[in-house]
Protein backbone atom coordinates (compact mmCIF):
# COMPACT_ATOMS: atom_id res chain seq x y z
CA UNK A 1 0.00 0.00 0.00
CA UNK A 2 1.41 3.37 -1.03
CA UNK A 3 1.53 5.73 1.93
CA UNK A 4 0.18 9.24 1.80
CA UNK A 5 2.60 11.24 3.93
CA UNK A 6 1.75 14.82 3.06
CA UNK A 7 -0.08 15.30 6.37
CA UNK A 8 3.34 15.31 8.02
CA UNK A 9 4.25 18.61 6.37
CA UNK A 10 0.82 20.12 5.73
CA UNK A 11 0.22 23.63 7.01
CA UNK A 12 -2.36 24.17 9.74
CA UNK A 13 -3.68 27.04 11.84
CA UNK A 14 -1.23 27.94 14.62
CA UNK A 15 -2.00 26.97 18.21
CA UNK A 16 -3.87 29.38 20.43
CA UNK A 17 -1.44 28.85 23.29
CA UNK A 18 1.82 27.09 24.05
CA UNK A 19 2.23 26.05 27.68
CA UNK A 20 5.38 24.90 29.45
CA UNK A 21 5.32 21.89 31.77
CA UNK A 22 9.05 21.77 32.60
CA UNK A 23 12.38 23.57 32.21
CA UNK A 24 13.77 21.96 29.04
CA UNK A 25 13.14 23.07 25.44
CA UNK A 26 10.96 20.01 24.74
CA UNK A 27 8.82 20.57 27.84
CA UNK A 28 6.04 22.38 25.99
CA UNK A 29 2.57 21.65 24.67
CA UNK A 30 0.71 23.43 21.88
CA UNK A 31 -2.97 24.10 22.55
CA UNK A 32 -5.85 24.59 20.13
CA UNK A 33 -9.20 25.81 21.44
CA UNK A 34 -12.63 25.58 19.81
CA UNK A 35 -14.44 28.76 18.91
CA UNK A 36 -16.99 30.19 21.31
CA UNK A 37 -16.89 30.29 25.06
CA UNK A 38 -18.60 27.03 25.97
CA UNK A 39 -16.36 24.79 28.12
CA UNK A 40 -15.20 21.79 26.09
CA UNK A 41 -13.44 18.50 26.92
CA UNK A 42 -9.67 18.35 26.52
CA UNK A 43 -7.82 15.83 24.35
CA UNK A 44 -4.14 15.27 25.15
CA UNK A 45 -2.62 13.98 21.91
CA UNK A 46 0.82 12.32 21.94
CA UNK A 47 2.54 12.37 18.56
CA UNK A 48 4.37 9.45 17.03
CA UNK A 49 7.59 8.98 15.08
CA UNK A 50 9.05 5.87 16.74
CA UNK A 51 10.26 8.04 19.63
CA UNK A 52 12.88 9.73 17.39
CA UNK A 53 13.93 13.39 17.57
CA UNK A 54 13.44 13.72 13.81
CA UNK A 55 9.67 13.67 14.36
CA UNK A 56 8.03 16.28 16.56
CA UNK A 57 4.60 17.52 17.59
CA UNK A 58 4.21 19.87 14.62
CA UNK A 59 3.11 17.09 12.25
CA UNK A 60 -0.11 16.57 14.23
CA UNK A 61 -1.16 20.22 13.97
CA UNK A 62 -3.69 19.45 11.17
CA UNK A 63 -5.29 16.83 13.42
CA UNK A 64 -5.39 19.17 16.41
CA UNK A 65 -6.86 22.04 14.41
CA UNK A 66 -9.53 19.77 12.92
CA UNK A 67 -10.58 18.42 16.31
CA UNK A 68 -10.71 21.95 17.72
CA UNK A 69 -12.98 22.89 14.84
CA UNK A 70 -15.29 20.05 15.92
CA UNK A 71 -15.51 21.26 19.51
CA UNK A 72 -12.63 19.71 21.44
CA UNK A 73 -9.81 21.52 23.15
CA UNK A 74 -6.58 19.81 22.08
CA UNK A 75 -3.12 19.89 23.64
CA UNK A 76 -0.14 18.29 21.88
CA UNK A 77 2.80 17.86 24.27
CA UNK A 78 6.37 17.57 23.12
CA UNK A 79 8.73 15.20 24.91
CA UNK A 80 12.39 14.25 24.66
CA UNK A 81 13.05 11.65 21.99
CA UNK A 82 15.97 9.45 20.97
CA UNK A 83 18.72 11.41 19.30
CA UNK A 84 17.67 14.48 21.26
CA UNK A 85 18.26 13.61 24.90
CA UNK A 86 15.38 11.15 25.17
CA UNK A 87 15.03 7.41 25.45
CA UNK A 88 14.97 5.53 28.74
CA UNK A 89 14.02 7.03 31.16
CA UNK A 90 13.67 10.62 29.91
CA UNK A 91 10.94 10.01 27.31
CA UNK A 92 8.72 8.35 29.90
CA UNK A 93 9.43 10.95 32.58
CA UNK A 94 8.48 13.73 30.17
CA UNK A 95 5.25 12.12 29.01
CA UNK A 96 4.19 11.40 32.58
CA UNK A 97 4.91 14.99 33.60
CA UNK A 98 3.01 16.35 30.60
CA UNK A 99 -0.05 14.17 31.11
CA UNK A 100 -0.22 15.16 34.77
CA UNK A 101 0.47 18.89 34.35
CA UNK A 102 -0.86 20.05 30.99
CA UNK A 103 -4.61 20.00 31.78
CA UNK A 104 -4.07 22.41 34.66
CA UNK A 105 -1.78 24.57 32.55
CA UNK A 106 -4.39 24.80 29.80
CA UNK A 107 -7.03 25.80 32.33
CA UNK A 108 -4.71 28.50 33.65
CA UNK A 109 -3.96 29.78 30.14
CA UNK A 110 -7.62 29.73 29.08
CA UNK A 111 -9.77 30.01 32.21
CA UNK A 112 -13.23 28.52 31.89
CA UNK A 113 -12.60 26.95 28.49
CA UNK A 114 -12.29 23.33 29.65
CA UNK A 115 -15.23 21.17 30.64
CA UNK A 116 -15.09 19.69 34.15
CA UNK A 117 -13.58 16.25 34.48
CA UNK A 118 -10.52 14.41 33.18
CA UNK A 119 -8.97 14.76 29.74
CA UNK A 120 -9.05 12.20 26.97
CA UNK A 121 -5.65 10.65 26.27
CA UNK A 122 -4.83 9.88 22.64
CA UNK A 123 -1.78 9.08 20.56
CA UNK A 124 -0.54 7.76 17.24
CA UNK A 125 2.07 5.06 16.63
CA UNK A 126 4.78 5.59 19.28
CA UNK A 127 2.41 8.14 20.81
CA UNK A 128 -0.23 5.42 20.97
CA UNK A 129 2.25 3.30 22.92
CA UNK A 130 2.84 6.21 25.29
CA UNK A 131 -0.90 6.80 25.72
CA UNK A 132 -1.57 3.15 26.60
CA UNK A 133 1.37 3.19 29.00
CA UNK A 134 0.56 6.51 30.64
CA UNK A 135 -3.00 5.45 31.39
CA UNK A 136 -1.74 2.59 33.61
CA UNK A 137 1.08 4.30 35.48
CA UNK A 138 -0.59 3.49 38.79
CA UNK A 139 0.08 -0.18 37.96
CA UNK A 140 3.84 0.27 37.51
CA UNK A 141 6.48 -1.03 39.91
CA UNK A 142 7.61 1.48 42.52
CA UNK A 143 10.55 3.47 41.20
CA UNK A 144 9.67 2.99 37.53
CA UNK A 145 9.69 6.19 35.48
CA UNK A 146 6.31 7.87 35.66
CA UNK A 147 4.99 5.56 38.38
CA UNK A 148 2.24 6.97 40.59
CA UNK A 149 0.10 5.59 43.37
CA UNK A 150 -3.27 6.87 42.15
CA UNK A 151 -4.79 6.32 38.69
CA UNK A 152 -4.12 9.18 36.26
CA UNK A 153 -7.10 11.40 35.53
CA UNK A 154 -8.11 9.97 32.14
CA UNK A 155 -11.62 10.06 30.65
CA UNK A 156 -10.83 7.65 27.81
CA UNK A 157 -7.93 6.41 25.67
CA UNK A 158 -7.77 6.57 21.86
CA UNK A 159 -4.79 4.68 20.39
CA UNK A 160 -4.22 5.09 16.64
CA UNK A 161 -1.97 2.45 15.01
CA UNK A 162 -0.26 2.07 18.39
CA UNK A 163 3.01 0.30 19.11
CA UNK A 164 1.50 -2.20 21.55
CA UNK A 165 4.40 -4.60 22.03
CA UNK A 166 7.87 -3.16 22.65
CA UNK A 167 9.57 -6.53 22.99
CA UNK A 168 8.27 -7.67 19.61
CA UNK A 169 9.12 -4.28 18.12
CA UNK A 170 12.68 -4.92 19.29
CA UNK A 171 12.78 -8.48 17.95
CA UNK A 172 11.46 -7.42 14.55
CA UNK A 173 13.91 -4.49 14.47
CA UNK A 174 11.10 -2.19 13.38
CA UNK A 175 12.03 1.26 12.10
CA UNK A 176 15.76 0.55 12.16
CA UNK A 177 15.88 -0.73 15.74
CA UNK A 178 13.74 2.03 17.20
CA UNK A 179 12.96 0.02 20.35
CA UNK A 180 16.65 -0.59 21.01
CA UNK A 181 17.31 3.13 20.72
CA UNK A 182 14.43 3.90 23.10
CA UNK A 183 15.15 1.27 25.72
CA UNK A 184 18.95 0.98 25.55
CA UNK A 185 18.84 -2.70 24.62
CA UNK A 186 16.52 -5.66 24.33
CA UNK A 187 14.12 -7.40 26.71
CA UNK A 188 16.61 -10.17 27.40
CA UNK A 189 19.18 -7.66 28.63
CA UNK A 190 16.77 -5.24 30.30
CA UNK A 191 13.69 -7.19 31.42
CA UNK A 192 12.78 -4.78 34.22
CA UNK A 193 12.71 -1.83 31.83
CA UNK A 194 10.41 -3.60 29.40
CA UNK A 195 8.16 -4.79 32.24
CA UNK A 196 7.67 -1.16 33.27
CA UNK A 197 6.78 0.40 29.91
CA UNK A 198 5.64 -2.31 27.47
CA UNK A 199 1.84 -2.25 27.05
CA UNK A 200 1.84 -5.94 26.12
CA UNK A 201 3.17 -6.70 29.61
CA UNK A 202 0.96 -4.25 31.49
CA UNK A 203 -2.79 -4.28 32.20
CA UNK A 204 -5.25 -2.55 29.92
CA UNK A 205 -6.28 0.98 30.93
CA UNK A 206 -9.11 1.25 33.43
CA UNK A 207 -10.65 4.03 31.33
CA UNK A 208 -12.66 3.20 28.18
CA UNK A 209 -10.16 2.45 25.42
CA UNK A 210 -10.37 1.93 21.68
CA UNK A 211 -7.75 1.37 18.98
CA UNK A 212 -7.97 2.06 15.24
CA UNK A 213 -5.62 0.87 12.50
CA UNK A 214 -5.54 -0.15 8.87
CA UNK A 215 -4.78 -3.84 8.15
CA UNK A 216 -2.26 -2.76 5.51
CA UNK A 217 -0.22 -0.57 7.86
CA UNK A 218 3.39 -0.96 6.71
CA UNK A 219 5.02 0.55 9.79
CA UNK A 220 3.29 -1.01 12.80
CA UNK A 221 2.29 -4.64 12.11
CA UNK A 222 -1.41 -4.96 12.82
CA UNK A 223 -0.87 -8.53 14.03
CA UNK A 224 0.68 -7.03 17.17
CA UNK A 225 -2.29 -4.71 17.67
CA UNK A 226 -4.69 -7.60 17.20
CA UNK A 227 -2.84 -9.62 19.82
CA UNK A 228 -3.01 -6.74 22.31
CA UNK A 229 -6.72 -6.34 21.58
CA UNK A 230 -7.25 -10.07 22.18
CA UNK A 231 -5.21 -10.41 25.36
CA UNK A 232 -6.32 -7.11 26.92
CA UNK A 233 -9.97 -7.15 25.78
CA UNK A 234 -9.63 -3.75 24.09
CA UNK A 235 -11.71 -2.98 20.98
CA UNK A 236 -9.79 -2.66 17.71
CA UNK A 237 -11.50 -1.02 14.75
CA UNK A 238 -9.82 -2.08 11.49
CA UNK A 239 -10.06 0.48 8.71
CA UNK A 240 -9.80 -1.06 5.26
CA UNK A 241 -7.55 0.90 2.94
CA UNK A 242 -6.01 3.01 5.70
CA UNK A 243 -2.23 3.32 5.79
CA UNK A 244 -0.20 4.26 8.86
CA UNK A 245 -0.79 7.99 8.51
CA UNK A 246 -4.43 7.95 7.41
CA UNK A 247 -5.60 7.78 11.02
CA UNK A 248 -4.05 11.21 11.75
CA UNK A 249 -5.03 12.82 8.44
CA UNK A 250 -8.23 14.89 8.48
CA UNK A 251 -8.34 14.63 4.68
CA UNK A 252 -8.31 10.82 4.62
CA UNK A 253 -11.25 8.48 4.19
CA UNK A 254 -10.39 6.97 7.59
CA UNK A 255 -10.71 10.23 9.51
CA UNK A 256 -14.50 10.16 10.13
CA UNK A 257 -14.08 6.82 11.91
CA UNK A 258 -11.44 8.35 14.18
CA UNK A 259 -13.74 11.25 15.04
CA UNK A 260 -16.62 8.87 15.71
CA UNK A 261 -14.47 6.70 17.99
CA UNK A 262 -13.39 9.71 20.02
CA UNK A 263 -16.95 10.99 20.23
CA UNK A 264 -18.17 7.67 21.62
CA UNK A 265 -15.44 7.17 24.22
From TrEMBL:
One of its GO terms (molecular function) is hydrolase activity. Pfam families: BD-FAE (PF20434). It comes from Actinocatenispora rupis. PANTHER family: AB HYDROLASE SUPERFAMILY PROTEIN C4A8.06C, KYNURENINE FORMAMIDASE. This is Lipase. Residues 1-21 are annotated as: Disordered. InterPro entries: AB_hydrolase_fold, BD-FAE-like_dom, GDXG_lipolytic_enzyme. Keywords: Hydrolase. Residues 30-224 form the BD-FAE-like domain. It comes from the Bacteria.
Amino acid sequence: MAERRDVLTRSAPPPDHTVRYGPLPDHVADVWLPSGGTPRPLVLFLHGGYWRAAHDRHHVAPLAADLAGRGWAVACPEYRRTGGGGGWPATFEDVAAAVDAVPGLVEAAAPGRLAPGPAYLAGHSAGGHLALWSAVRHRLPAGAPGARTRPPAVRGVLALAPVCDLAETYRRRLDLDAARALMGGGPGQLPERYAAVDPARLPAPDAPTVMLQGPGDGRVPIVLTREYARTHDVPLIELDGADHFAVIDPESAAWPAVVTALTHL
